[in-house]
Amino acid sequence: MKALFTENRETGARTLDQQILELFREKKGGLVSGEELSGALQVSRTAVWKHIKSLKELGYRIEAVPSQGYRLVASPDLLIPAEIAAGLTSTRIGRHIICFKETDSTNEVAFKLAEEGAEEGTVVVAEAQRRGKGRLGRRWESPAGVNLYCSIVLRPPILPIKAAQLTFLSTVAVARAIAATSSLNAFIKWPNDLLINGRKVAGLLNEMSAETEKVNFVVLGIGVNINMHRDQFPTELRHPATSLFLEGGGPVSRLAFTRALLEALDELYETYLHHGYGPVREEWLARCNFLGRQVRISFQEKELGGTAEGIDADGALLVRLVDGKIERVLAGDVTII
Ligand code: BT5
After folding, report:
1. Which atom of ligand 1 is nearest to the CA of 132?
2. Which helix (H) or strand (E) holds 6?
3. Whole-prediction pTM value?
4. What average pLDDT score do residues 127-134 get?
């Protein structure tokens, strides 16, 4: 499992590419000599050259001025730790950021890292996923370079039955990040979707490791379609899908979005730890647009219809059946009629 870039904001440990980018950033577009780079990084000039070459391959425009050094001319909207961490104000979420050019599934990587002891707030990001996961073994389309695929390790001191509450926390965080970085407003559809104009723009998949009375860790998996174009969606998706680009008509900075998301999550998680689920639930209810509507819910072989009334303290959906009884629904797919 070789990460493209890693950065630990607490210990300061980072890859050489990260360090080179930081030196460039400090110079604010000015020249950095090869000597300066090799001295600061404690590697040979040839090694510096090789790293510069690999950064160029990633889309960084780096100009070499003969016998003077290198200058960073332009950076791509690439999800790498140095860029994500620049100006990031979160304290807990994003303490350690690990980025891949491609991986099977960021949730799988984060889960494995958490099993190996990764600290709370570790964030795994990939530019592309080979086998992005949806719920129940479904696939999450994850083309390269246009969207956000990320997974966050949390170690909340809660009982396993409360862990579903964290899905609400991440949906609210995504909705906040969309509002902060675009002119769009996303609505939440229980339990794990965000919709714009009725089309799915983001999906969440939380996975947990727990014992009977203790959560070891939770991995919050978040996929957001940011700059995905129409032709990048497969034709056979179960529900209509969209991206921020398609809805807003223009590109959205993936870096700005990622920072906004991590900061929103940080704030919501802090609130959750200190004040419980109540405030998160309130905001979730305010951002969801299907309460009072007729819905159909399918789960495995079962189907049930009624009016969506709300969510309870555990995050279960409350549905009023035709006979007036309220049914608590813990899992399933909702279709708004
Ligand atoms: C989800 O499942 O919506 C959860 C998606 C979670 C993806 C993130 S990406 C980072 C992290 N790492 C992972 O491996 N996963 C998480 P579900 O509600 O089951 O919806 C899946 C269904 O959405 C699929 O069956 C498709 O019909 C549709 N779909 C697939 N890719 C999509 C996309 N990019 N945009 C919109 N809809 C999509």
Report:
1. 14
2. strand 5-8
3. 0.90
4. 96
Asked if the model's pLDDT at residue 27 lies above 70, the reply is: yes
Do the Cβ atoms of 222 and 175 come closer than 8 Å? Answer: no
Q: What number is the average pLDDT over the span 233-241?
A: 84
CB contact set of 306 (below 8 Å; sequence gap of 6+): 294, 295, 319, 320, 321, 322, 327
User: How large is the average pLDDT for residues 290-299?
Assistant: 90
User: pLDDT per residue over 8-26, tens digit each?
Assistant: 665 555 678 878 988 998 8
Token look-up 């794990």 returns: 192
Residues with CB under 6 A from ligand 1: 105-107, 129, 132-136, 138-141, 149-151, 192, 200, 203-205, 221-223, 225, 237-238, 241
Q: How many CB atoms lie within 10 A of CB 322?
A: 8
Please provide the average confidence, as pLDDT, over all residues in the chain. 91
Probe residue for ligand 1, chosen from 113, 133, 140 as the CB with the greatest number of ligand atoms within 8 Å: 140
Would you state the pLDDT for residue 18? 79
- What's the pLDDT score for residue 337? 86
Residue 295 Cα to ligand 1 midpoint, Å, equals 21
Q: From the CA of 293, how far away is ligand 1's center (Å)?
A: 24
Using pLDDT thresholds of 50, 70 and 90, give the confidence band for residue 313.
confident
What span, in angstroms and rounded, lies between the C-alpha atoms of 326 and 329?
Answer: 10
DSSP string over 108-161: HHHHHHHHTTPPTTEEEEES-BSS-B-GGG-B----TTTSEEEEEEE--SS-GG
Question: 282: exposed, middle or buried (C-beta count within 10 Å: 0-12, 13-18, 19+)?
Answer: exposed
DSSP code of residue 164: T
